[in-house]
Amino acid sequence: MSWLLDKINGGLVRVFLIVVALFWLVPTIGLLASSLRSPDDMSASGWWHVFAKPSQLTFDSYQKLLENGDITHSLWNTVLITVPATVLVVVIGALAGYAFAWMEFPGRDWWFLVVVSLLVVPVQVALIPIAELFGKIGLFGTIFGVILFHVGFGLPFAVFLLRNFFAEIPRELLEAARLDGAGELRLFARVVMPLGGPAIASLGIFQFLWVWNDMLVALVFTKSGTQPITVALQTQVRQFGNNVDVLAPGAFISMVIPLAVFFAFQRQFVSGVMAGAVK
């Protein structure tokens, strides 16, 4: 009897999770359906009518999107900002995390405490002073300036996460590699990095999603030629409130790319989140 109850309870849990997932996907499905409808159809009825009239589906909106130079240029700007900001945070954070975990140098614990204390500094507090600084040195309004801002605010969390993960690596394993003649750089590249893959993947996903979806920093630090897709879509809404045939596919592309990145590294992300939870 107990196995029957367990099976029923398990089935109810699965049904509940499926229902929750479907509700979570409703906005995504609605945006996709809207991006595949003509402006006349969207103004005449809701997006859910596409299921009753599949003939409304068309890729004309995506064709118009590709012909919109502001949107395509901003999408490329988003890639130019997100990829370097993610790679730099992962590489520098991994090097610093390894140094704080396994290298001896004066004031190591105090420096790590300073890094951890930077986690409590909100982004909003630094916007004005850093904008003034970037204006004085000629970085305001440039893609490089936005990258530096994201790297600076992404590194404290990266160092904190990777240092704690690297510290769980068995000391005997590192000592054995040193006895075989491995230097610190080779030890980091051949031993620590492969073992830290799940944590590094988790950090990369977090950083990628944060930078890709950012609007506040980009709104403050970019100009018309360096705006990412989030700011460009907001500008299109403000200036051309009726061009939903461009906004809908632009918003869907802006959303589906980080989703694709997340699902591509989902297994590594789960491993990184669960690392250390079970001994």
Commentary on this structure:
The chain is built from 14 helices and no strands. The protein is mainly α and 279 residues long. Helix 5 packs across helix 7 and helix 10 packs antiparallel against helix 13 (244-264). The longest helix has 34 residues, at 2-35.
Write a brief structural summary:
This protein is 77% helix and 0% strand.
Mean pLDDT across the residues is 81
For the terminal residues, how far apart are their CA atoms?
34 Å
Please count the beta strands (DSSP E, at least 2 residues each). Answer: 0
Determine the number of helices (DSSP H or I, runs of at least 4 residues).
Answer: 14
Assign an overall shape.
globular
- Structural class by sheet pairing and helices: mainly alpha
**What percent strand?**
under 5%
- pLDDT below 50 for ≥5 consecutive residues: which ranges? 275-279
Pick out its properties.
mainly alpha; 77% helix; disordered C terminus; 0% strand
List the helices and strands and how they pair.
Blueprint: H1 2-35, H2 39-44, H3 60-67, H4 69-102, H5 108-117, H6 123-137, H7 143-166, H8 171-179, H9 184-195, H10 197-213, H11 216-221, H12 229-239, H13 244-264, H14 266-274
Helix pairs in contact: 1-13, 3-13, 4-7, 4-10, 4-12, 5-7, 7-10, 8-9, 10-13, 10-14, 12-13
